[in-house]
Every structure is written in structure tokens, then in C-alpha cells.
Give the backbone structure.
Amino acid sequence: MASAFLTGNKTTHFICGAIREVKNDLHDLDFADTMLNIDSITTLLAIITFCLLAKFVYDQQKKKYKNFPPGPMRLPIIGNLHMFNLREPYGTLTQMSKKHGSIFSLQFGFINIVVLSGYKVVKDALIKHGDDFSDRPQIPLFAKLIRGYGVVFSNGENWNVMRRFTFLTLRQLGVGSKAMESVIHDECDMLLKAIKSYEGKPFDNLPVMSTAIANILLSIILGNQYTCEDPTILRMKHLIEESVKLIACPMSLLYNVYPPLVNCLPGSHRTTINNNLEFCKLVKEIYTKFKAQPDKHERRSLIEAFLDKQHEVKSKSGLYFHDENLNTLISNLIIAGLEPVHSTLRWGLLLMMKYPDIQKNVQDEIKKMIGVSLPQTEHRKELPFTNAVIHEIQRFGNIAPISIPRATTRDITFKGYFLPKGTFIIMLLRSVLQDKDYFEKPEEFYPQHFLDSEGKFVKNEAFIPFSAGKRSCIGENLAKMELFLLFTRLLQNFTFLPCPGLELNFNPEIGFVSSPKPYMMRAVPRL
């Protein structure tokens, strides 16, 4: 088979001919010159052999899966890496989907990836075939960081146990209730006070916004014993924020494609690994203090509820409540709870400065419907335009343009294509939130996407910023509550203005989430 492959391939004929020409040329050189060229020839032959072997493996795989989704032509060893802007991969995928359709395949190194785009295809995968697309693939960097623990990148029984525990515990702690509204309002009071202290002068909103949202999250995960002012928490927060950006850097992406090779090189992947080790050490210091507390202490946080579960060794599920799972679960929840809300609000304020008429319409509606009263979750129905603007900020900001990768749980046929068990799946959420069949002006900021002709709020089925199905965001209800209450109170109390002479920048930061670059703004008090 190998000989037939070598003699029948046009590329091989060309390479063999080139090698013969090199050999003929060597006969015309003296012995010393020949010896000097032997190392170069050996290297060339090794590269050629490796390329041919890689192509042979690819061709055999292609024959094995005849109905595998098509895609752009790929090169040996690198696959389609040469076609990608590694700093904005979702932009490349968007362009490819326009050319190759809503289902196509790529190759990163030796990894075959299937990309799903457009609302109809993604919905079918997430809802109608939810069980078939519910696994996570083995991604080298995440495998090294997480090792199958926690709730975001785990599979099987570990994922079931951790997700069930997290969901029930968040509900028991009052997430989505009036009690949680009070927590959010308390932090918002501090946020308004901090913004007011700038007296309408330019300031960077990133630190103050981050502190408010992080404190809400910490009250749930760690209780009232820690706030963002604590040195340990400040360091943990820095490690997470840095790692979120580094995970999407080119060296981290290359590590996932060629782990043995890139592992030896310096770069963002090594910093991310070191950050994770330090983060786990800090988490251990925290739960060691909790473990030292009396058993009769009233449990008011997720970490305390987890430690209680560690004592449940009678049931099978109790075996999953170990320290490694705790480390990863806390990391998962902080990242999932902090960055999306934080980035969405910062996109929102940037957009309000860009579109002052929309900002004024929101303020007028708030003034008319609730005046100076504290906004409550039930006020959503009374504030349709404000609610539509918040939804459009989420759609336009597009915090997660690419979903966290999925993997097929079994061999399946999807939309006429065969996907073997374990197929690496990327769902292009950007294509869903910009699907022209569901959004009239997909590339513009247009709150009317969520309003009918009478100005009433309407849902849009293609609006799935938190994904959907079994792997949808477990903190979706908390995030929705935070976004509505914080955004409404901010615009109730301030008018946000750009700094004179500074152009508003809508190019996102490089990172795991699509967040706005740091910017200065002014906040003029209204009340």
C-alpha cells in the first residue's frame, strides 16, 4: 500500500525527481563539498518523509469517514493553521462559513474540527441533538490546567455531580430571589459612590466595575468573609483576568495543536499554567481556613456547602467532593460569573456614549416608569425599551463569539454528515447572534431587534448569548439579574459621555471573551 501511494502520487513524483537532481549535482562536486551537504539533504529527506506520511494518514482517515463535512484545502502537518488570524479566529471562521456553508471541517495540526454556524444548525445541535453534542473534547492546555475536574470542562459522572451540586446550591443561596437583589443593590450603592467621586472628570471604569461585580460573586462563593480589597482575592482576580487573555494568545493556541513541541518553548501557555498553580494554592489557603471552623457553623456560601459534601462518603456522588474539584469549580465560577457580566456592562456604557439618543431614551423611560425608586427585576415589563437595549448590548457585544468546544458522545449522522464519536465541535455563536434571517441589521447596534411595532419587548429565538441545552451557562439567571439592575441604576443616576478628543474604540481585546479595550469616560450625575 505504501509503495502504491509513493509511486502514484503526483507530488511524490515531483519530490523524487528533485531528489534525483540533487544526487546528480553531488557527483559534480568534490568529496568535501558533498560531506557539507549531507546534513542538509538528510534534513530535507526527513521533512519530505514526514509530510508524505502525514498526507497518507489524512487520506486514509478521509476514506474511513466518507461523509465527513468538507472544508478548505489543508496542508500536511499544519492543516489550515496558515489560513487563520490567531488573534481573531472567530473572524476567520465567519469568513469561512460564508464560503463553505453552515457545516464545514478544518484541520489544526492533526486535529480535525467541525464548525457549526447559523441559528438553525446550532439550535439543532444544542436542542434536538443535545445529548449527542454534550461532551467536551480533550484540549491539551485545558487538560493540563483542569484535569477533567470542575463543571465547565469535565465529562461523565463528574460533570453531572458538579453541575447538580452547583445548580442546587446557587438556588439555596438565593440566586434569583429578592435576597440576591439586595446584595446586588448594596454593591451598586458602592459603585455609584465610587463613580460620583470622580465629579464628572475622566476615569477608567474597568477597576470600579470589576470590583462591584466580583464582590457580588464572592458573596455567593465565599460568603461575607472576603471582598475584593483582600490581598488574596486581589491576586486571584489578577491571575484569572490575565489567564483569560493568555488562553487566546497565539502560543496558547499552538500549544493545543502541537503540545510536545510548544511545551518546550516560552510563551503565554507557560504563564497560564503557572498562574493556575498559584491560583490553586491561594484557593487551598482559603478552604483550609473554612475547614478549621466549627462543624456547627451556619453554611452561607458555596465553598462551605462543598466542604459539607466532603463528609458524605456513604453515597457514590460524595466521592467527587475532593479538593481538586473544589479548586477547579471555584475557578470555573469566578471566570464564568465575572468576565461576561463585567464585559457586557462595559460594552453597554461604550455604546451609550456612541449613541446618546438611545441613552436619553433609556433615561426618559426609567424616569417615567419608576422615577427615583430602586429598580426591581419585575420592572423589566415596565421598561421594554431599556430591556431591549440590554439584550441588544449582549447581542452586539457578542461576549463569547465562539462557544466552549463540544465533542460528540457517539457516532452520529448530523445534517447528512457522519461525525464519529469524539469529534471536536466548534459552534460559532457569532454567526447565531448575527444571523440575518433573525436580525434585521445584524452588524449594527439596533435595539429594535427586540421591539415590535408598538414598542413592546419581544423575544428573539436566535438570542442565545448563554448558549442553550445541557451545557448552557449555569449562572444565566444571576447574570440577567445583575445586568438589568446594574445597567438601569447606572443610567438612572448618570449620563455617560466620551472624553473630549478621544475616539471611541470598538475593537475588542484579545482573549477568551470578547471584551472592550480599556477606555476613559465621564459620568455626569443626573439626580
About this structure: The first helix runs from residue 2 to 8. Residues 1-36 have pLDDT under 50 and may be disordered. Residues 1-64 form one domain. Strands lie at 103-108, 111-117, 203-204, 406-407, 412-414, 417-419, 424-428, 494-498, 520-525.
